[in-house]
Specification:
- The protein is an alpha/beta fold.
- The strands form 4 sheets. It has an 8-stranded parallel β-sheet with strand order 6-3-2-13-12-11-10-9. Strands 1-7-8 form a 3-stranded antiparallel β-sheet.
- The longest helix has about 35 residues.
- The C terminus is likely disordered.
- It is an enzyme of class 2 (transferase).
- Keywords: Glyoxylate bypass, Transferase, Tricarboxylic acid cycle.
- One of its GO terms (cellular component) is cytoplasm.
Amino acid sequence: MRYEVIGPMAERFDEVLTPEALEFLVTLDSEFAARRVALLDTRRARRDRFATGQLPDFLPETIGVRADPTWRVAPPAPGLEDRRVEITGPPERKMTINALNSGAKVWLADFEDATAPTWDNVIGGQLNLMDALDRRIDFTDPRGKRYALGEELATIVVRPRGWHLVEKGIVVDGRPISASLVDFGLYLFHCARRQLAAGAGPYFYLPKLEDHREARLWNDIFVFAQHYLKLPQGTIRATTLIETITAAFEMEEILYELREHSAGLNAGRWDYIFSIIKNFGQWPDFVLPDRAAVTMTVPFMRAYTELLVRTCHRRGAHAIGGMAAFVPSRDPEVNENALAKVRADKQREAGDGFDGSWVAHPGLVPTCREVFDAVLGERPHQLDRQRDEVSVTAADLLSVDKTPGQVTESGLRSNIAVALHYIDAWLGGAGAVALWNLMEDAATAEIARCQVWQWLHHGTPLAEGGSVTSDRVRALLAEELSALSEGRGDAERERAAQAARIVEETALGEDLPAFFTTGAYARHLGPRRRSLAAAS
C-alpha cells in the first residue's frame, strides 16, 4: 500500500510521524478500514429505518449475553482503580499541564469534541502527550507566567476521534485514513511503553459508538495492535461513552465485546441528547424544550443513567458520570449559584452509584472531589452497589415526550449564539470554547444547531407567543453575527460570516444537520498540502 503525508511538517513533527509509526498506521488501515466502512453503512441503514418510524429496542439475538450472570469485565487497571474526578480537555500544551496538575484522578486528553481537527492540533497534541510522559513539557504565557508539571499527576486517558471522521493529512492509496486509527495508533505506538514505565498503561475513551459491533471492531484492533507491538493482551483498557441512543440499548453487549479491555462506561450526556434529536427529530413526539431544561433528572435521561450504573456494576465495570461544564467566573454570585448546581448534580450521581464524574475546568475539581469523597470515603469505587432494583424498559429510554419545559425566545437565541460563536472559534482552530460561563464543545454546538432545525421544522410555538420561523431565525442570526463581528479585522469578520453561513444552511435546510466535522465543513479548516513521505 502507498501512503502519503500531505499535512505540513512543523517543528518536531518528525518525532511523531516516524516511518515506523506510519507503517503501523498503514497496517491498521489495511486490516480494518473495510470493516469500518461497512459499519458506517450499517449506521446509515439504521437511520433510514428510523426515518420510517421504526424505533430501537433491546436486541433479541443477544439476550443470551444479557441473561448470563457469570461474565465480568477485566478488573481495574493500574491508575484506573479510583476515578472519582476526571477532567476533560484538548491536549494543548497549557491544558496538558493544567489538567495533569489539577488534582483530578484522570485526565481525558480529548482529540475529539474538544479539539478542532487541524493538522497542528492533531500532531501537536500527540507531541504534547509524549513530552508530558517524559516530563519535559512546560509553557509560558504572553504575560510571562510559567506552567510546569507537579509531582502528583492525573492518569492520561486518550479519546480518539469517532469512526465517522477521516484524517485528510494522511492518505493511503489516495484516500484519507480513519481519524480514529490515527489518534489511537500514534498514541499507542509512541506512549504505550512510556505509560507502562510510569506504572499505568495505554488507556482510551471510545466515542460515538452506536452498537456492539463497533465495540467488537475496537476490541479486534486492540488485540491486533498489542500483538503487533508485542504488548501483553489486556494492556489496553477502554472506557466507552454511551452517548448515542442506539448504544443505550446495547450497554451490556458493548461491555461484553470489550470485556478483556473494558474500563467501564461513561454517561456522555450532551451527545446523547444530540443523538436523540439526530435520529428522531423529524417526529413531533421527540421535540425537546430549551437545552437548559433538558436536565439529567428528566425521565428519559434518568432512565439512561440508572440503566448505565446497574449495567456497569453488574459486570464489575466503572460507571462514570457526565460533564459539569461550568467555567468559574469573576462574579462571586454567578460562581455561588453555578457551583450549587454542580454540587447537586454530582450528589445525584454519587448517590445513584456512579464511581466518578467529569468536569471541564480545574476550578470544579474540588467540588466534584468533595462530593464523591463524602460517599466513597477511602474506597476507590462503589461497584458493590448493584442497583438490582432498577428496571428500565425501551419505552423508558424513549420517553422524550415526558420532558417538561417550553421553547422560549431566549432559548432560541441562546442556541443560535452558541452555534455561531462555537463554529467561529472552531474555524479558528479551537475545539473547547468558554461561552457565557459554560465550556462548549462540538457536542453542545451540535445540540444547538439541531434544536433550531427541529423547532423550525415543526413550527414549534414559543412560550412568549408566535412560533419558530425562518424569518425569526435569520433575524436573530443577523443580530448575533453583527455583535460577534464588531471591532474585528477583515479576516475575523469573514470567519464569523462563514460560521453564520454554516449555521444558516444547516438550520434552514431540509435535512437534519450532519456533524459539521464530517467532510462538508472540514474543508474550512484550511489547506493540507505539502508532501512528506511516499511508499510502503
